[in-house]
Amino acid sequence: MLIERCIGAYRLRRIQRALRHGKVTVICLILTVVVLRGTIGAGKFGTPEQDFLNIRDHLVRKTAEHRRVLEEIQPQQQQQAKTISDSAQSSGSSSTSNANSYIEFDINTILKDEGPEEKPDPSKPYSLGTKISDWDEQRSLWLKSNPQFPNFIGPEKPRVLLVTGSSPKPCENPVGDHYLLKSIKNKIDYCRLHGVEMFYNMALLDAEMAGFWAKLPLIRKLLLSHPEVEFLWWMDSDALFTDMAFEVPWERYKDSNFVMHGWNEMVYDEKNWIGLNTGSFLLRNCQWSLDILDAWAPMGPKGKIREEAGKILTRELKGRPVFEADDQSAMVYLLATQKDLWGSKVYLENAYYLHGYWGILVDRYEEMIENYHPGLGDHRWPLVTHFVGCKPCGKFGDYPVERCLKQMDRAFNFGDNQILQMYGFTHKSLASRRVKRVRNETSNPLQVKDELGLLHPAFKAVKLSS
Amino acid sequence: MGQDNFMTQKRNLSLPTTAAAGNGRAFVGGGRGALRGKHVQKTFNNIKITILCGFVTILVLRGTIGIGSLGSSDALNQNLIEETNRILAEIRSDSDPIDPNDPPEPDVNPNTTYSLGPKILNWDSDRRNWLEGNPEFPSYVNGKPKVLLLTGSPPNPCDNPMGDHYLLKAVKNKIDYCRIHGIEIVYNMAHLDKELAGYWAKLPMIRRLMLSHPEVEWIWWMDSDALFTDMVFQVPLSKYSKHNLVIHGYPDLLFDQKSWIALNTGSFLFRNCQWSLDLLDAWAPMGPKGPIRDEAGKILTANLKGRPAFEADDQSALIYLLISRQDKWMDKVYVENSYYLHGFWAGLVDRYEEMIDKYHPGLGDERWPFVTHFVGCKPCGSYGDYPVERCLRSMERAFNFADNQVLKLYGFGHRGLLSPKIKRVRNETATPLEYVDKFNIRRASHSL
């Protein structure tokens, strides 16, 4: 009433109306913000869902329970470990016993990088290394002056270097390193039988080409440092040998420089992004290979270049999902668009599984054991079972964890059985780590031959001088 | 105007008392019919607004809590984590899927002496005949005897992930050395003999490999926790032409003091011959697990100096065997200590920087140790005999120390002995072969 007398009834009503409008507007605005926050979230302030979970966790303290098995904390030890880390320099038997425990040790506390980080020069276009144009001549000169390192160790058998690798830091997944260990044992066995040399890489040569592109600078460096190597065989760490008796038909590739598993129609006609596989391939040590590596690399440098290249590849290739450029898609694109330059020396092999996608193979192992025998290398007994997408070293892959790990065990045992049978043993089953005897010991061991003839195979025989 | 009506109605809602009064005042002249119509409209508006508010509330609630199974990817994540945990626990356990068709394991008869296999009597002549009949598998290539490096680890994952990671690094280290020196590797992950499990598992494997590979002249056992730290040094096998077992140790500790660490069975070489088979047969009896191993442990603790009380291990058993039957075996055993065929890590790892400063690879001894052996660290188990940080730090340093020697050929080196990252130590060039000639270890060793 007082206000009415000051301003006047009409004006008062107008103010009240305005206030009412204002109230409604504000209510609507608040509602909109709340709804949007609920759906999209507000960045680091989180969503109401996260708030809810935080409150719930605070009250119930469930998270510790979930992580228990993954990190193997025994409750008392963790408590003690915490108190030890709190009381820094306390001596005494209790502290030493826990300082000796490997559980829950963080490796990052001891790793230390010294010296400056190498920064690439942003003004220069990316290059794998100094351009070399006369590699064939340089190499043949070297081979002539070093006859004790021939590039052919048998009449048809070239010197081969199998290259694989993994990260120098522990896997995110607690059993990832164990599967890497089994994978390397599998490769050691195959390479010992077939006289192939091995290089296990744990170094990132070029920080710009990280991830799946890391193999390119490595391959180039190895080709140039090992002129005695005729063929370089790159193999992913998640690929396992499952046919120990199969020898790669080297004579078939005498006119080719690059052998990959794939299909000509799928690459050149369809431009399908999985028309070939770069998880297991052979590359000859020659100028042509250095040139194709240089042509392959430009889509690799991480950051904007790789992102943009990824978009081009998704657009141009059939079936490719949207993600940054990967080396396989880049190779399909390179071959499809520059077939006249490279196609004549590329051999897309599909008569045997130089790379075998695991999904269609792993369930058939028992059937293979029943009906076939090692040495075939194809769909009847695959040379390589490649666990694409499983990512055992990472936290989550594209497939269910259980299926991946169990099947990798089976594939490993399937290959390992062929090695153990040389010594008269086999795994109790494809899922079991235990072995059982299948051939009794004898006092005349040299009379006994192993079924597959892998103890002294023909492809390992030393060239006899006539 | 319309808006005004709406606002009036809203005011009706929020302020019922005044609105009622206001309404009464405003509509008193409209009559009963008009009043009823207004009531209906009011109710209708109320319902509209109620529905609107209800709708908005549901939207907001869905944004916060979600609608059970339709909502939250986070619940999915939780399920995934729980499943992963279950699978990991299963993988890490030592259990096997039990096959009902398997015959029950026969019980061990403690009265019969354990044997590695049927006695072989003429191995030397059998082997010689085989080599003559198979010239494409010679035991000497380019004047160098064929060596097979045997190492291994248990078939199940380590108790902690660090263990598997360092096993992996140790294998890479061995692959590098063996590639440079033309040695084949056998990595064993199977327990060939249930009774000889643990550190004894090497005995049946060594015997098996000797008999299956007559073309192999020397079998070199190396523990999984031993790393090569001198990539250039080669074992001088010509020095041992009259010996069949080369093992690192100290003769005075062995014969005078009878110490249980007089020899180290973490890295030794066995020639492929009858003598070695006989020694293995004499070595094995203390191994079978159970009461035999425990009893044997007591004997060994009683007879060897400084040995703690625990079950029989292969090292103590070999020392005891060689001491007690000195006359039978020692003339063919070479106790080597002029270079570190086995180098105990504690005295070596802190001196790497000093070594890099003053010396060079190829020496193999205390100036540049051939092998650094991490005895007692036990990274694959849960507990070691030494603090974890010290062990892992030292293992990382030893690995990088060796890796630098391999990477030198490629023009790279680690950014510090504790760093997994590498840096360029030599610029790229258009003529890489001149550096290959300079830095390739294999080439250098071949021309010797």
Automatic annotation (TrEMBL), chain A:
Assigned EC number: 2.4.2.39
Membrane-protein topology: Single-pass type II membrane protein
Keyword field contains Transmembrane helix: yes
Enzyme class: transferase
Region (Disordered): 72-99
Pfam family, one: Glyco_transf_34
GO BP annotations listed: xyloglucan biosynthetic process
Subcellular location: Golgi apparatus membrane
Residue ranges crossing the lipid bilayer per the database entry: 21-40
Key word Repeat present: no
InterPro entries in alphabetical order: Glyco_trans_34, Nucleotide-diphossugar_trans
Top-level lineage group: Eukaryota
MF terms in GO: hexosyltransferase activity; UDP-xylosyltransferase activity; xyloglucan 6-xylosyltransferase activity
Alphabetical keyword list: Glycoprotein, Glycosyltransferase, Golgi apparatus, Membrane, Signal-anchor, Transferase, Transmembrane, Transmembrane helix
Composition bias type Low complexity, residue spans: 74-99
CC terms in the record's Gene Ontology section: endosome; Golgi membrane; trans-Golgi network
Reaction(s) catalysed by this chain's protein: Transfers an alpha-D-xylosyl residue from UDP-D-xylose to a glucose residue in xyloglucan, forming an alpha-(1->6)-D-xylosyl-D-glucose linkage
Record family assignment: Belongs to the glycosyltransferase 34 family.
Name of this protein: xyloglucan 6-xylosyltransferase
TrEMBL record, chain B:
Reactions that this protein is recorded to catalyse: Transfers an alpha-D-xylosyl residue from UDP-D-xylose to a glucose residue in xyloglucan, forming an alpha-(1->6)-D-xylosyl-D-glucose linkage
Membrane topology, record value: Single-pass type II membrane protein
Compositionally biased tracts (Acidic residues): 96-105
GO cellular component entries: endosome; Golgi membrane; trans-Golgi network
Subcellular location: Golgi apparatus membrane
Enzyme Commission number(s) from the entry: 2.4.2.39
InterPro entries membership: Glyco_trans_34, Nucleotide-diphossugar_trans
Protein's GO biological process: xyloglucan biosynthetic process
Region (Disordered): 93-113
Entry keyword annotation includes Nucleus: no
Gene Ontology MF: a single term: xyloglucan 6-xylosyltransferase activity
Gene3D superfamilies: Spore Coat Polysaccharide Biosynthesis Protein SpsA, Chain A
Keyword terms: Glycoprotein, Glycosyltransferase, Golgi apparatus, Membrane, Signal-anchor, Transferase, Transmembrane, Transmembrane helix
Family: Belongs to the glycosyltransferase 34 family.
Protein name: xyloglucan 6-xylosyltransferase
